[in-house]
Amino acid sequence: MKLRAANLDIYRKVPHDLVEGTRSGSLLSIICLLVMLTLFFYETRDFLRRDIETKMCLDSDKDGATAFRINLNITMMDLKCEFATIDVVSVWGEEQNVTQNVKKYPVDGYGVRQRLHSRNKNQRDVLLKDDSVIHRDIEELIKEGAAAVSLTPDSFKDALKENKFVFVDYYAMWCIHCRMLMPTWEAFAELMVEVVASHLQNSLESSTFTESEKDQIDGLKLPVLIAKFDCVEYKEFCRDQRIYSYPTLQLFIDGEKYHSEYWEDRTLPAFTKYLANVEDEYFNNSESTFDNAHRIATENVKQKGIEYEHILDRVKKNKIYKPWNEGDHPGCQLSGYLSLDRSPGNFHIEGRSNSHDFVPSMINLSHIVHHLSFGEQFTRSLVEAGVTVAPRELAPKLHPMDNNVYITDTLHSSYHHHLKIVTNILPFRNMRRRIYQFLYQSNLVLYQYEEHPEAKFSFDLSPIAISFHESIRTWYNYLTSIGAIIGGTFTVVGFLHRSLKFAKKQTPKFGGKMHISERIHQ
Question: Which domains does the chain have, with CATH numbers?
Answer without folding.
Answer: 18-49+482-521 (no CATH), 67-111+306-471 (no CATH), 138-287 (3.40.30.10)
